[in-house]
Amino acid sequence: MGAGGPPLQREKTESLIQPAPHTKPPFTLSQIKKAIPPNCFKRSLLQSFSYVVYDLSFSFLFYYIATNYFHLLPSPFAYLAWPIYWIFQGCVLTGVWVIAHECGHHAFSDYQWVDDTVGLILHSALLVPYFSWKYSHRRHHSNTASLERDEVFVPKTKSEVPFYSKYFNNPPGRALTLLVTLTLGWPLYLALNVSGRPYDRFACHFDPKSPIYSDRERLQIYISDAGIFAATYVLYRVAMAKGLAWLICVYGVPLLIVNGFLVLITYLQHTHPALPHYNSSEWDWLRGALSTVDRDYGVLNKVFHNITDTHVAHHLFSTMPHYHAMEATIAMKPILGEYYQFDGMPFYKAAWREAKECLYVEPDENSPTKGIFWYRNKL
Questions:
Q1: What's the pLDDT tens digit per position in 220-250?
Q2: Are strands 342-343 and 294-295 parallel, antiparallel or unpaired?
Q3: Could you give the dihedral angle defined by the CA atoms of residues 292, 297, 302 and 306, in that order, rounded to the nearest 10 degrees?
Q4: Does residue 305 come out as left (phi exceeding 0), alpha (psi in the -120 to 50 range) or beta?
Q5: What is the CA radius of gyration of the chain?
Q6: Is 319 helix (H, G, I), strand (E, B) or coil?
Q7: Which long-range contacts (CB under 8 A, 24 or more apart) does 179-185 make?
Q8: By the 8 A CB rule, do 295 and 309 touch?
Q9: This model's pTM is above 0.85
Q10: What is the largest CA-CA distance in the chain?
């Protein structure tokens, strides 16, 4: 990680983590863009669709093998085969989720109606309200690392930490917290705005009258709900025809894995002991966009269309298609210098470390600037 101040000493942590730079960068967004080859900003409808076909082909292949051959295996091997299917299918469908996410950013093609049509179909099939999340996610990009206006994984200050958190600040408690977060975090966020920005009244991604949305967006929230209703009806008909157990094995468990990876990826992109957050006295868009970190998921980087290891570029230029993001990342790193953040720790270890060290944020008591907040872990 880049160095932006004295090392942060963590309670019961031997390693020293260098804080990311938090002062205004000595470069502009325009200068970053000029360092990136112009072709990186070009969207190809054909190339984008090729990734949809590629992912769905593998998804169908895994489905075909599971439903046509697993029952022929001797029972011990069949019990082993299903978990393998769940993992493979969940990973591939996470890639499908990422493509739909690109549609929401208008990074799929030059045609907004194509992006919205493809995104609505793909996200609805994964029980995601496409337009609802598109708009809240857009606000996340507009307000990244703002303690008042960011939309997701907004850290609490120490005074906001619930009293019972200290009872979970131990290995069993952290394991339980991670399990609940990865399995229930996504539906709870959509339905109840858990871990999201606080609003003055109930906020829900399925409610067209939710305070998350402006009046001009409400009609499309109804469209998102219709997509979810249609997908749910299809799943109901499948369950009636094939049985609930069949549906859970073929679709339900892989969807849990998709949701888990989605939460994990987002959590690790925006949660790191070295990343600053800002209140309104210090926040600006560029510093907020740079307050994210690229991670290494090994072979899954490609399966997830590099959303994991090119996330800094994505926050700076969200309409850039994923197949150009690595080239752009390499080109802009010399400009960003220590403002570019990358952590190569294996993601499963990083999740445990962040759950241990990133419990709340507070200003550095030794700094005259009180609008910049850092993660702490001493309850």
A1: 999 999 999 999 999 999 999 999 999 999 9
A2: parallel
A3: 0
A4: left
A5: 21
A6: coil
A7: 181/263, 181/267, 182/259, 182/260, 182/263, 182/264, 183/256, 183/259, 183/260, 185/259, 185/263
A8: yes
A9: yes
A10: 69
